[in-house]
Amino acid sequence: MSEHHDDLPAFCHPVSTKLLFGVFFGLIGLTVLTVATSALGTGLGMPPAFAFPLAMVIATMKAFLVCAFFMHMYWDKSFNVLAFLSSLLFVTLFIGITMMDTGENQPTIEAFDINNLANVDVSE
Amino acid sequence: MAVADSHDTHDDHHDLYDHGEFIAHHFDSAEQQFDSGKLGIWLFLVTEVLFFSGLFVAYTLYRTNHPEVFEQAHVFLNKYLGGLNTIVLLFSSLTMALGVRAAQLGRNKNCSVYILMTMVCATMFLGVKAVEYSHKWDMGILVRSAFNLTYTHPTPTTEIGKSLHISDYLVYLCIVPALLLAGFLAASVISKLINKTMLAKFMVAMAITVSGYFLGVVVGVVFMSATDAETGSSHASVITEQPLMLMASTQDEHDEGDHDEGDHDKAAADPNHEGDHADHEEHFGAHPADGGEASFDAHHPDPSTLSRDIGIFFSIYYCMTGLHAIHIIGGIIALAWLYWRSLLGHWRTDYFGPVDYVGLYWHLVDLIWIYLFPLLYLID
Amino acid sequence: MVDSSTRQKLFGTPETNFLNCSKGWKSWAFTLDHKRIGIMYLIGVTVALFLAGVFALVLRSHLFTFDSTMLSDDMYNQMFTLHGAVMVFSFIIPSIPAALGNIVLPMMLGAKDVAFPRMNLASFYLWIIGTGCLLLAILSGKGLDTGWTFYTPYSIDTNTGVIYATFGAFILGFSSIFTGLNFLVTVNTMRSKDQGWFKLPLFVWSLYATAIIQVLATPVLGITLLMLIAEKTLHIGIFDPKYGGDPVLFQHFFWFYSHPAVYIMILPAMGVISELISVYSQKRIFGYSFIAFSSVAIALLGFLVWGHHMFTSGQSLVVTLIFSAITFTVAIPSAVKVFNWLATLYKGSILLNTPMCYALSFIFLFGIGGLTGLFLGALSTDIHLHDTYFVVAHFHFVMVGGTLTALLGGVFHWWPKIWGRMYNDFLGRVGCFLVFSGFNLTFFPQFVMGSRGMPRRYASYDPEFQIFHQLSTVGAFVLGIGILLSFVVLVYAALRGPRCSSNPFRAASLEWQSSSPPDFHNFLQTPVLTDPYDFESQVYDEELDTYIPREFANPDKVAPRKEPVHH
Asked: C318, A100: Cβ pair inside 8 Å?
């Protein structure tokens, strides 16, 4: 599957099939890994607190593979990459600051019981 | 010249290979056109990320503030089915990437095959999802306000349902695809008869795409019965978990007056969030000193042991997967458009932008699922 | 060597231009020409302005007396909600970018069109559909009484047309996203050869910064409104406390978009003012890079301050302090711009025509609006001022005194370019005077009564405030007359004004090198790339009675440059 890259325009950059399949099998492997660690993890002695971070790490590795190779980011103009990654920055901002605040209201919401409104403590 | 371009009506696609035909009049070169489109689609993906972000924020917030809800709720999701769906979507990403490659090399026929494979994977994903959703609806697992868990599966009332032992909801979810399949098959036959070969090929491909949905349904049903502990359970009594807001929906609920007291107990047992951690432990293993609360059985939870906020998880679940499914449907439509253009042979080494751009969108849909899967299915 | 007939062809009044090159309603309805789309947008937002303006006048008439029975309380709620919703979503956000920006941006870049003309047309149709949906809230008979902010839990419980309105706003959001996306790509990929970033007019920089906000923030509004609709219809329990949801969460989601949205409203306006001040003082804009970078700084900082709308909502103290501090910093780039405009005026050769009058009004009114924002950003004073007329006055000073003023100034400025006809400057300035004085009469008393405790969104009030309300109502009608007069002047000029030349005011940005009106393709020749604030690059041509680039002028008749070319 060698490319005849010489007669292709500069902006046309086909990715090799070998690489695409390689990435695919990597993704499958990671998927199997994440399902396995989730189903069997605690049985094999993994502390439960690890489960979520591990799942996120594996998901991010998969995301990296999809972004870099399937989405061609590895060879793309840096401006496009910057635009996409900055969106993640803004999402983080959104989540982060909102989370810092919603903790405040939880006690009131927890205590709210429609059957017994006298229970509600709004003195805070 | 000021009028929008009507789609070229050339049947003989060789005419379109004139130099510069595919460069829009306001661009100076094919490269400028490609670069503009590329930046444009990346910016669109930025908007999609921000669009989904609202739901991820809601997820993060509720999971942080109600971890026990999430841990209890996820048993109702089948992680193997979710894993299967993940693999299907990853495979569709591969075929999409191969399709882009084919378009870049001007191989229109190969491109059309890869696009068709992508579409079939997409509909298969939707089919599996339909099985998941209908299974939940049978169990009364709905959004927060309507959450009403029951283990007795209702008896199917439809003919098909009765003969195949599948839920009514699943039958309803198959009606539209069945109509589409029939429609596309009929359209392909008619097109063949009136000598529109391209159109016939397109209709056949669409019919194949829709069959992917039924393939997904079959696989889903088989998988579910093979892996799911709850299917076929015969928990005799119908237990209702009354939602926080008393809903005077049926006479039955009013009659079960004892459940009001059950709710009060739960509300009292679930005070402020410092108590949450204590609750968490209570629900996950016997607390001997505890006064009479049944211990939480992870495989077959007794509804009365569930947190009163359990429905929140499913509100978020339906919103996230529902929005994702809507994006899959949109993607299928875009792919169908690409398929049509591949049949017409539009792609060449200096013009393959649309395939590239739809490909990026498709990979984003896959990317979002890559995160949804562990967040929703792999919680423990 | 360019000869006289070529000059005539390039810069004289053309036979065929973008307005008359094709006729019939279909040539407009299906056009891909950014100039035609811009004009259609202009007509659309003007209709929205008038409609929402009528709601405002009804409101102000009701408030003339303290115990008025002109409107029922419920109808009053509907009036202020609809005034706000239509103004914000259908008028102000699209106004400068979609109407003026569409017409001018590609020409400033020397391009033939925006990057995605069909997406441009789609964005216009989305505007129509979205506005229609918003108005369905009224036409369905249900109305809308939640305030334009749709706060939960009331918006969940009320039986008014919340779903129509939020769905309309959702669609309008997409219109905004498409415009922003289009502009980002156009500025990135379709600049003229050798036209570097620092050779761009500041209007382009401001539209670019605005587009960044449109693309990043608007989708969050989209998901928020969808979730609100899901909450109302399916009771998903995210915002509704009855189901364990958090109503303040809605406010976080809503303001995450709506605060950056106000920068969508003001940044393009500031860009217009940079152009007007510079051209009508015939002086290079002072501190070009500062103004350019401040636009981007405002765009980015604007994402970090949304909580200042929520100081009294029970927000956590830590987060409140952070938001308050950053709110102070976001004022700095705006102040930088004001100083730079004033410095540009200094020792300039001022032409006090209609657009310049609007530009000077802007500096004064935006200055007041911006400064009063600081009172609201300071936590201690905001506790007292939140939800009073002080807030109402603040945002009207920046939105009307700011954006509307800049819109009018920009429309007057580019009107001769679009139609090839000149407006009546005297009447234009009368209109500006009426707008300026009417506006001040309307909103200045509101600062006073707000600080004295008059709450906003109240249908009746204590008699002590009556005099302020009466001044405000009179002012509102004067403002309305001023806007109406300006509208009449502009329409008359477009249809029957005296013909004018391609560059009557010696502007130097590229759009002035096309004929007036421009050709369908914008330029009949590749425009000469000049620094957009290098006014000496344009010289007067007697035959055509216009200013043309030096390169095209008759060398015998042209004096040498007084100043060297600025680098």
From this structure: yes
CA distance A87 to A84: 5
C540 forms beta bridges with C547
Taking CB atoms and an 8 Å limit, are A109 and C188 in contact across chains? no
Residues 318-357, chain C: which have Cβ within 8 Å of A? 318-319, 322
Task: Report residue B99: phi and psi, to 5°.
Answer: -65, -40
The shortest C-alpha distance from B360 to chain C (Å) reads 16
Name the residue facing B46 among A35, A84, A115 (closest C-beta): A84
Q: Is the link from the previous residue into C153 a cis peptide, with omega within 30 of 0?
A: yes
Tokens, residue B121 = 């994977």
Query: How far does A96 lie from chain C, in Å, by closest CA?
Result: 10
**Set of chain C residues whose Cβ sits within 8 Å of the Cβ of A87:** 216
CA distances from B373 to A38, A60, A69, B84, C157 (A): 12, 12, 21, 11, 34
CB atoms within 10 A of CB B213: 27
- The per-residue pLDDT for range B112-153, each reduced to its tens digit, is 999 999 999 999 999 999 999 998 888 888 888 777 777 766
The CATH superfamily label for domain C31-500 reads Cytochrome c oxidase-like, subunit I domain (1.20.210.10)
pLDDT at position B299, please? 61
Which chain A residue shows the shortest CA-CA distance from B267? Answer: A113
Alpha-carbon distances, residue C559 vs C344, C537, C554, C556 (angstroms): 25, 11, 10, 8
Instruction: Tell me the β-bridge partners of C519.
Output: C522
Please judge whether B39 and C184 are an interchain contact, meaning their C-beta atoms are less than 8 angstroms apart. yes
- Range 213-272 of B in CB contact (< 8 A) with A: 244-246, 260, 263-264, 267, 270-272
Compare CB distances from C32 to B4, B51, B315 and report the shortest one's residue. Answer: B4
Is the distance from CB of A92 to CB of A46 less than 8 angstroms?
no
- How far is A101 from chain C, CA to nearest CA, in Å? 5
Name the residue ranges covered by the structural domains of chain C. 1-28+501-567, 31-500
CA B25 to chain CA mean position, Å? 39
Cβ within 8 Å, pair B86-A103 = no
Which tens digit of pLDDT belongs to each residue from C291-332? 999 999 999 999 999 999 999 998 888 889 999 999 999 999
pLDDT tens profile C167-198: 999 999 999 999 999 999 999 999 998 999 99
ipTM (interface pTM):
0.93
DSSP sequence for C165-227: HHHHHHHHHHHHHHHHHHHHHHHHH-SPTT--GGGS-HHHHHHHHHHHHHHHHHHHHHHHHHH
Radius of gyration of chain A (CA): 23
Q: B76-110 as b/e, with b when 16 or more CB fall inside 10 Å?
A: bbbbebbbbbbbbbbbbbbbbbbbbbbbbbbbbeb
Pairing state of beta strands C538-541 and C546-549? antiparallel
Amino acid, single-letter form, for residue C512: W
Give me the mean pLDDT over the C155-165 stretch: 93
What's the CA gap between C352 and C174, in Å, rounded?
A: 39
For residue A46 the two structure tokens come to 């993994």
Q: Read off the pLDDT of residues B331-349 as tens digits, 9 standing for 90 and up.
A: 999 999 999 999 999 999 9
Which residues of A lie closer than 8 Å to C, measured between beta carbons? 79, 87, 90, 93-94, 97-98, 100-106, 109, 112, 114
19-48 in A: which are within 8 Å (CB) of B? 20-21, 23-24, 27-28, 31-32, 34-35, 38-39, 41-42, 48
Domains and CATH numbers, chain B: 27-259+310-377 (1.20.120.80)
In C371-421, beta strands by DSSP E: none
